[in-house]
Amino acid sequence: MAEQWTSEEIDRVIRETVRRGQTDAEFRKLALKDPNMAVMKVAGRGIPESLKIKFFDGTGAHVSIVLPELVADDGELSDTQLEQVAGGGRCAASCAASCGVTSTISVGLPGVGAVGGCI
């Protein structure tokens, strides 16, 4: 299992991955095909299993919809939700389960502006 990352580490690595994807055609192909491997090449380590990353080519329109975690029929909170409540932690990869919104990273692209929401 990969070690946990801070929001700052994730942000830095994603920004560097995007930058390399803009200037290196082979790396761009890798990022589109195998985002985890592209991020690993930049960071030198694997991403947490709970973090899902997907890069899209910048042409055309893309819509990504994140379904929240399944809610238990018994009305009890999951272990992840309990940890967030008990620790008062900031939402990260499981934000959809705890606050009903998607977790994304804001990445400013030249001529496009910022993309994304909270991490």
Question: What does it look like?
Answer:
The protein is mainly alpha-helical and 119 residues long. The chain has one domain (7-99). The chain has helices at 7-23, 25-33, 35-43, 79-87, 95-99. The longest helix has 17 residues, at 7-23. It is extended, with a radius of gyration of 16 Å. The chain starts with 6 loop residues before the first helix and ends in a 20-residue tail after the last helix.
- Oligomeric nature of the chains: single chain
Order of helices and strands: HHHHH
User: Counting H and I runs of at least 4 residues, what is the number of helices?
Assistant: 5
The figure for the number of domains is: 1
Strand content range? under 5%
Task: Supply the helix-strand structural class.
Answer: mainly alpha
Mean pLDDT: 75
Helix content range: 40-55%
Shape: extended
